[in-house]
Amino acid sequence: MWTILLCLFLGTLLGVALRQRRRLLVLLDRLTMTAVYLLLFLLGISVGANPVVMAGLGSLGVQALLLSLGGVVGSIVSAALLYRWLFAGRGADA
Questions:
Q1: What span, in angstroms and rounded, lies between the C-alpha atoms of 8 and 26?
Q2: Long-range contacts: 68-77, Cβ < 8 Å, 24+?
């Protein structure tokens, strides 16, 4: 856990230091998205190769759908409430 937090902190510091180098940041953004797509692809291979996961895909799929919907609805409600709280009385319609 500490390794992850240290990497995140060091990356943040490096990002602040490189903030003015737009071309480098565009390149890093493309590399990051490529890495994310590759990791998702490899995760899909791991899930597909796991017979236990594939056997329980029906029940796991329903649970995943419910968790996803709960997360989306909770995020929307939280964002709406936070927006109203932050901009209440400032003339912004919520």
A1: 19
A2: none
What gap in Å lies between CA 47 and CA 25, rounded to an integer?
32
- What's 21's DSSP letter? -
Return d(Cα 94, Cα 91) in angstroms, integer: 9
Locate 94 and state its tokens. Answer: 């919520």
How many Å apart are CA 90 and CA 94, to the nearest integer? 11
pLDDT tens profile 18-73: 889 999 989 999 999 999 999 999 999 998 899 988 888 888 788 888 999 999 99
- Amino acid symbol at 14: L
DSSP 93: -
Q: At 60, list the tokens.
A: 């796991």
**Structure tokens given for 38:** 């590759």
Query: Do residue 7 and residue 44 come from a single domain?
Result: yes
Q: Give the structural domain span for 82.
A: 56-94
